[in-house]
Amino acid sequence: MNAIVEIVDAGLAVSVQDRGRMGYRNIGVPVSGALDPVLMAAANALVGSPSDAAVLEVGLSGPALKALSGTVRVGLSGEMGAQLVNTRGQMLKVAPWQTATLSPGDVIRVGGVAHGVGYVALSGGVQVPAQLGSRSTYLRAAIGGVQGRAPKAGDRLQCDAVRGDPWLEFCARAPWHHDTGPIRVILGPQEDYFTREAMENFLTRPYAVTRDMDRMGLRLEGERLAHNEKGAEIVSDGVAPGTIQVPANGQPIVLMADCQTSGGYPKIATVIRADLPRLAHLRPGDELRFVAVSHAEAAAALREQVRRLAEWVGTIQSFRPPGVIDEAALYGANLICGAVRGDEWNLHGVDLTLRFGAQHV
Amino acid sequence: MTIELAHPPARLLSVGDAAWTVEFGNGIDPAIHGRVLGFSSLLDTLSNDGRLDGVVEWVPTFRSVTVHFDPLRTDAMALHDLLAELARKSGSLSAAGCRWHVPVCFDADCAPDLDEVAAAKGMTRDEVVRLMTETVFTVYMLGFLPGFPYLGGLPEALDMPRLATPRKVVPPRSIAIAGRMCAAYPWESPGGWRLLGRTPVRLFDAANVRRPALLAPGDQVMWQAIDRDMFDALDRECAAGRFDLSSLLAGGESE
Predict the structure, then answer these.
(1) Which portions of chain A are predicted below pLDDT 50?
(2) pTM for the predicted model, two decimal places
């Protein structure tokens, strides 16, 4: 059954994204898609949607959504919480990494994302029409998303109504953590356009993230990466998200999901798939280090990430939140899953931690 | 003498763990581009037969083909070896697309760099326009923006470097030149090419599922000068979706 949510507040840097738009790069259409597909899959897993169902990606502050018809389950991933106001005027604080279920009339206000990106998944996915095989938003050419643009107040998004118990919520045992350590790259395709010193700098020196960052690319600043006698321009050839191109000024630019399909600067290396999501969480001033790996190591890292995500999804448990049901029922059953941090659930501003929280851990 | 000796061998370059670039040369050259088209056509055939498991898509450029794949579905090194073998086997194709006659307004407000290009080349405005409209351009590749065609064939007399400082805003559907290349910006965007005119024709339409981009590699393009009134009239037709794109095909070649 269908459900409809209305955008009450559009938030900032919010867009509909899915796995991305494959098959049109030969005509210059970027892949787009979630900057962090792992967190997208995590949010979808919480609401029971397929891992690549379309979600709302939040770059700065989250949207406010109102259920108009049908019961809608909303899942949050990333360091981003929310507040639910139900039709009885109750306010519930919703922690990151869990769901909140909206009955018609209920409003969820998603907060700001502490760093990088967060995802808001809806039961059944955000069902805007797909364009060229994807719902992902590519603003410059007005493709995908909500009629080619970001959602705005008053827009109505279709999703699926919750099947099963509408009083159940779901949460993961712990937040997802990306790998740490240097960003892994595969050298090339034009590592032969750089001096030996530049290659050494690239693989040993830190590169700082500048303010110049968006869904298209991330400019870094650090020890100059000098081109050799072959120069700083090539006849354009193919690039991919993660490709690190170096223009004449010697400062690297890491291409992101909305990047162009081809480029004319020498490309020193490309970030491996498993580490691409980490780039979405960088802030200006953060320092990056790069390490070169082989194709076999990159493939192993990606398989390990898939395995770890499946394991994380396996820790998702259901629980009955306080506040939406009566307290006797709450005391009468084992209601709260271990991962619920009591301090995140407030009813009318009353801290529930002391009353129900810790003993279930 | 074998065919392999006639062609220098292709190089395979890593573009991360999910793409290989099969490179046939370094320059903008019809012979190199012919190999790009030949290789792409072989990939088309194999893909239609379901024999490119794990390959997501490929992007032909002037001088190479970048093959994007899913590293969870195919082994990178096995695909490397397959692509290298295919590159040895594949032949050349010459450009054999449609020929489009695309209206362009060269009036001053559509062509902010026309006077400067004319002055730099010691020509009048009309001489520049004549060169632009007499040339048969060839589409080498699409890239940069959805539907953005890179056209080869610009006469040497119009060879100009890019602007030292790129514009922050290039109006949509501007016709532009840089080096020996010509292009058309389907979308408003930043850009460093020199703007010589503007077409009312929409070069990309995501709603046109069968052919979202008007132009394809191998197509030929001729610009046809129109005046401002005609530009405005056609622009209204195009914006309203009433313009018949097939009317741009040269007589006899349309099917």
Answers:
(1) 326-361
(2) 0.89
